[in-house]
Predict the 3D structure of the following.
Amino acid sequence: MIEPPRDCGLCPRLAAYRADNRAANPDWFNAPAPCFGDPNARLLVAGLAPGRRGANRTGRPFTGDFAGVLLYETLIRTGFARGEYQARPDDGLTLIDCMITNAVRCAPPGNKPLPAEEAACRPFLAARLAALTRLRVIVTLGDVARRNVLRALGLPASAGASGHGAETRTPRCHLINSYHCSRLNTNTGRLTPAMFEAVFLRARAVLEGAA
Ligand code: SF4
């Protein structure tokens, strides 16, 4: 199964958090965030988990919170998205040859999933990877995404290099790691828009055979 059911209960802590959010904000999405983008994509962007006020509120990955601004604007600039990002799922933004998912599909308290929750959600990530038959490049946003993508590919987490811009070739596809486009990383200058754009330009180069 690629998309978890709305009431997936495999992670009791996250299901309880979801129920709390549903009670406090019944007009929010409050469910596992589905993947978004082109089902025939050659590029997959893998994030950590939905933000409480981001995908957990709007239902589209990286939509509605700060991280989405830099991600979607960068995808537009590098030709992986078309339209205008307006922080809402009906803004008409279209991904081109690109899909976005999260390693953990439910919003975790403090944006920190537990290792058991990463493991519980990994079959959904593995199913997504399997369904992307043309997949060639995965951009992982941060270490949690990187290690879960590696494990979902059947590799040990130690198989891939960490750090911004680090690349790993796997039998299935090419991995490029990026610092997460979180407000913390951008506000502190750990990740600049230029650094982030360079990752997607590199993904473009790999897709065009310049790896
Ligand atoms: S994080 Fe994944 S496995 Fe855990 S409850 Fe949500 S959808 Fe289910």
Q: What stands out?
A: The helical segments are 12-24, 55-58, 66-77, 115-131, 143-152, 183-187, 193-207. Residues 4, 8, 10-11, 14-15, 32, 104-106, 117, 120-121, 124 surround iron/sulfur cluster (CB under 6 Å).
